[in-house]
C-alpha cells in the first residue's frame, strides 16, 4: 500500500515550515509577484488549449520559485557571483 499523507499531515508540515522560517512567508509581504505576471505571460506565448493537454504552470509561482532558488543556492555557489 502506498504511504499517503494523513488528514492533517499537510497542515502539520506547513506549521513545521513556519517554525523553521519558511522563506516564502518572508518573501510574500515584501514582493508582489503578481506585478511581474504580464511580462512572462506575453513572452511565453501560451498555446491554444482547446484540444486539451496539461495546463501551463502559473507564471507568478514560477517567479517565486526562481527567486527562492537564487536565495537558497547563492551561499552554496559563491564562485558564480
From TrEMBL:
Domain of life according to the entry: Bacteria
Identification of the protein by name: Transposase
Amino acid at each position: 500500500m502506498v504511504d499517503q499523507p494523513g488528514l492533517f499531515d499537510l497542515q502539520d508540515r506547513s506549521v513545521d515550515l513556519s517554525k523553521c522560517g519558511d522563506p516564502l512567508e518572508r518573501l510574500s509581504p515584501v514582493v508582489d509577484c503578481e506585478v511581474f505576471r504580464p511580462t512572462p505571460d506575453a513572452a511565453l506565448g501560451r498555446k491554444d488549449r482547446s484540444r486539451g493537454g496539461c495546463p501551463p504552470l502559473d507564471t507568478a509561482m514560477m517567479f517565486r520559485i526562481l527567486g527562492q532558488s537564487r536565495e537558497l543556492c547563492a551561499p552554496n555557489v559563491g564562485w558564480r557571483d
